[in-house]
């Protein structure tokens, strides 16, 4: 079937269609505004009436890349029902050729949808298990930088966490490396797969990411692991580094601001903010803060005034030592714990001994 694409595109909406060229290919172009973005849509009708459609942000549209993308689409299986990735010579180094299916512009012409492919410029690091970046709304800015992605799955339960154990999801590598891996609770393993075939099981141990040959400072992952996600570089060798100062592991329970059943590594200012803005809100709220050595300071909102009970436990003796404190005293105890890795509760004086 040879498609009169110009007639179909003009249709009842009367959107203007302009004949032109993309290199050696004759094409039809439309200028549209989609969700406030000015876009250029290009159509090419090849042998047998196969329609190739590509779309770009107007400011990033390039005729030479349009030609490259059309060439790539013409090498793909015209009867393909899944996305085909074709290498191209461009910073976004893959042409993703995908069936259009029931595209909006051809909704009344299913026979046309059946022979129409859209081709997108993507980077090989962005395509996980055939899933394109952006899902049904991929980024169509041709001048953008690659945005590597990874499939992740929890291998251990994380009560109250954002992900379910054993369920694979796809995440942006930048968020994974800068927020999500540093935010893992202690004792929870995460399986991470990138687009290049690396498959790692990792976990956080204090301020390091370890597992499957990985042993890296937690807050350097964008630099140390980033190249693996982008270009397929081997995972880096273990990298020694001194401890990150001013960090504490924290668990907590509140009546109206959630909980952390497993230890989370957080900077001192976030720990004190949690204390001031959440633990103080209601009687019965509590938090436990631990230093790298295992020294502990724990607090509980009390009904009395001052309203914080603060103590340090001695598990070997099954007792804790503590007293009611002001917020200033509590912050001072956490500061010493974070910076000196010791409990200074005994220095408060006037402590009570509580058996547990």
Number of helices: 8
The biggest sheet amounts to: 7 strands, mixed
How far is the first residue's CA from the last residue's CA? 82 Å
Residues in helices, as a percent range: 10-25%
The class by helix and strand makeup works out as: alpha+beta
Unreliable parts: none
Mean pLDDT: 89
| Order of helix and strand elements from N to C terminus | HEEEEHEEHEEEHEEEEHHEEHEEEEHE
Within the largest sheet, what's the order of strands? 1-2-3-4-7-6-5
Shape: elongated
Number of strands: 20
Work out the strand percent: 25-35%
Gyration radius from CA atoms, angstroms = 29 Å
Q: Can you tag this structure with a few keywords?
A:
alpha+beta, 356 residues, seven-stranded mixed β-sheet, 8 helices, seven-stranded antiparallel β-sheet
What would your notes on this structure say?
The structure is a single chain. The strands form three sheets. A seven-stranded mixed beta sheet has the order 1-2-3-4-7-6-5. 18% of the residues lie in helices and 35% in strands. It is elongated and about 90 Å long. It has helices at 5-10, 63-75, 110-113, 173-180, 221-224, 226-231, 268-277, 327-340; strands at residues 18-22, 25-34, 37-45, 51-57, 84-87, 94-99, 116-122, 149-154, 169-172, 189-194, 199-205, 208-211, 214-217, 247-253, 259-267, 286-290, 296-301, 308-314, 319-325, 352-355. The protein is α+β, with helices and mostly antiparallel strands and 356 residues long. The longest helix has 14 residues, at 327-340. Helix 7 (268-277) runs antiparallel to helix 8 (327-340).
């Amino acid at each position: 079937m040879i498609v009169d694409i110009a007639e179909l595109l003009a249709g009842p909406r009367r959107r203007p269609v302009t004949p032109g060229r993309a290199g050696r290919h004759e094409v039809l172009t439309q200028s549209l505004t989609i969700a406030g973005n000015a876009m250029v849509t290009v159509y090419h009708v090849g042998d047998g009436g196969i329609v190739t459609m590509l779309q770009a942000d107007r400011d990033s549209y390039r005729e030479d890349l349009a030609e490259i993308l059309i060439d790539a689409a013409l090498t793909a299986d015209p009867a393909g029902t899944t996305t085909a990735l074709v290498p191209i010579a461009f910073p976004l180094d893959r042409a993703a050729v995908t069936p259009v299916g029931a595209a909006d512009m051809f909704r009344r012409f299913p026979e046309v949808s059946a022979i129409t492919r859209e081709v997108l410029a993507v980077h090989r690091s962005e395509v996980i298990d055939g899933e394109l970046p952006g899902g049904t709304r991929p980024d169509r800015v041709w001048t953008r930088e690659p945005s590597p992605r990874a499939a992740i799955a929890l291998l251990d339960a994380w009560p109250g966490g954002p992900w379910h154990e054993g369920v694979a999801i796809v995440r942006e590598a930048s968020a994974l490396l800068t927020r999500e891996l540093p935010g893992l609770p202690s004792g929870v393993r995460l399986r991470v797969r990138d687009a290049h075939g690396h498959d790692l099981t990792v976990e956080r141990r204090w301020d390091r990411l370890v597992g499957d040959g990985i042993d890296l400072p937690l807050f350097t992952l964008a630099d140390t692991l980033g190249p693996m996600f982008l270009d397929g570089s081997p995972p880096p060798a273990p990298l020694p580094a001194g401890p990150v100062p001013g960090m504490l592991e924290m668990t907590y329970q509140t009546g109206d601001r959630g909980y952390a059943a497993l230890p989370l590594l957080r900077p001192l200012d976030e720990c004190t903010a949690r204390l001031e803005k959440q633990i103080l809100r209601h009687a019965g709220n509590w938090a436990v803060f631990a230093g790298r050595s295992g020294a502990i300071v724990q607090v509980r909102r009390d009904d009395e005034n001052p309203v914080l009970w603060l103590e340090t436990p001695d598990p070997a003796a099954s007792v804790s030592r503590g007293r009611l404190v002001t917020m200033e005293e509590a912050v001072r105890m956490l500061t010493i714990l974070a910076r000196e890795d010791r409990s200074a509760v005994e220095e408060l004086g006037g402590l009570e001994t509580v058996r547990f």
